[in-house]
Batch of 2 targets.
Target 1
Amino acid sequence: MSQEPVQEGVTDAQRAQKIKDFMTLLPLTREIAGLPQGEIGRNFNEGQMDVRNSTLKLAYKMARQLLKDISS
């Protein structure tokens, strides 16, 4: 698994806050993504994981935007 490059000027506290924000939005993100749960004992192939990853990224952006919209 590759690691993302560390952003210059980002503190550990800021990184921790981003992770906390992501985890807080995860239930909403999963609902927006609408992905089915995987079957127990059955793994996804690389292509399926790529598609799910892209779907979750887009759903996360939509979840963040939704919160911004309703909070303003």
Note: The longest helix spans residues 46-71.
Target 2
Amino acid sequence: MTNKFAFALAGLFAPMVYAAALPQPAELLATNTVVAVYEKTIDRPCMHRTALCPDRCDHAKKLAVFRVVENENYERLGEYGDAKSEPGSTIYVNMLADEPGQDAAVRQLISELKPGESVRLKVDHYYVKEPTNQYPVRPVTLIERVESTQDAASSGELPVWLIDDRD
């Protein structure tokens, strides 16, 4: 009787999403801070490849797509850390589940963004080593709105590289 009650109770709370703490031990391999433009959110459906699909798997994703404009800071601390995000590259953030070590406020702020808005993103690359498995984790540890070049031009504050003084 207790097991049935526990399963029923677990089923009630399963849809709730909480920000999970980063599993330990986790080795920081790389950190990448970029200015990126939010482009859109896309739905990536489940491809029905396992017996759990489509209703009990987590293969379907809702991804926020960011296009990197500028890389502000990059550190590669481990041999297998992610490469530097170059301008024009893409960063995807899953909107259906929090990455371990990622605050729930990250998804909240992304859901408020409009296409074309600029943000500063810091993505850390960890490698988690548990007794039974090992896997990479890439949480977004910082997200904040920044003024885009278009906003600066409309306010009269042009960046130095846009001012042409060759008369």
Note: Residues 6-18, 152-167 have pLDDT under 50 and may be disordered.
